[in-house]
């Protein structure tokens, strides 16, 4: 049964964006394994399982997608490197809900790493590349798109050009700079940290609120602001912004939603960062 977070005027569900395994140490940076493995167990090779689960947000007659998963363009070698154990099923999952790519109005990319933006462009039945959501406005922070277009030596390995083929020329790319209301009840805010142009998505419903912090808060085990990833480009910025945002949204009693966590889709935290409610 599909997990759904009902916020009254807003409904959030999770879709299959492909599942993979990454080295546990990279997900916890300088945190000793003896600490993190108690909360998120690794296998004998130190790998942990992670989801890539795009969020479908139904609000005010709009279908909004937050991130797009791995996509279906990975080569056999790439699947082996990233230990993909469940393929991208986003299109099929939408169909199970009676939706097609044309029914998605807005795609919000928290950032443009391959595991979040891989589904922007897909291979069709003929093996040709096409936009997966041909009517959707794609919301990206201006600074993030600048780095996609001119990546540095590090980001070049995760901003893959074939994930954005045709997007800029489609008229569907919408760059924002800082905070912007996308539709009533859905707002993006620039956070930086993980990447220079990383953004969060804040969601307000008539029966509560939720916030999606993307890779600032990849799993529930990262509630400690000091638990940051080796993948973070600006780790001290992540610590600083997590302290502020976790406190802000805890006080609002918002749900924190997850993209990578295999154990829960969303949670609420108390003032000590302990999970007090969860959605699995």
Give the key terms.
280 residues; single chain; 8 helices; 19 strands; 7-stranded mixed beta sheet; Metallo-beta-lactamase, Chain A; alpha+beta
Describe how the helices and strands are arranged.
Blueprint: E1 4-6, E2 10-14, E3 17-23, H1 24-28, H2 33-36, E4 47-51, E5 55-59, E6 62-66, H3 76-81, E7 86-88, H4 90-96, E8 106-108, H5 114-117, E9 121-123, E10 129-131, E11 137-141, H6 142-149, H7 167-170, E12 173-176, E13 180-183, E14 186-190, E15 199-205, E16 208-212, H8 235-251, E17 255-257, E18 266-269, E19 275-279
Parallel strand pairs: 6-8, 8-11, 11-12, 16-17
Antiparallel strand pairs: 1-2, 2-5, 3-4, 3-7, 5-6, 9-10, 13-14, 14-15, 15-16, 17-18, 18-19
Write a concise synopsis of the structure shown.
The protein is an alpha+beta fold and 280 residues long. The protein contains eight helices and 19 strands. The longest helix is centred in the last third of the chain and has 17 residues.
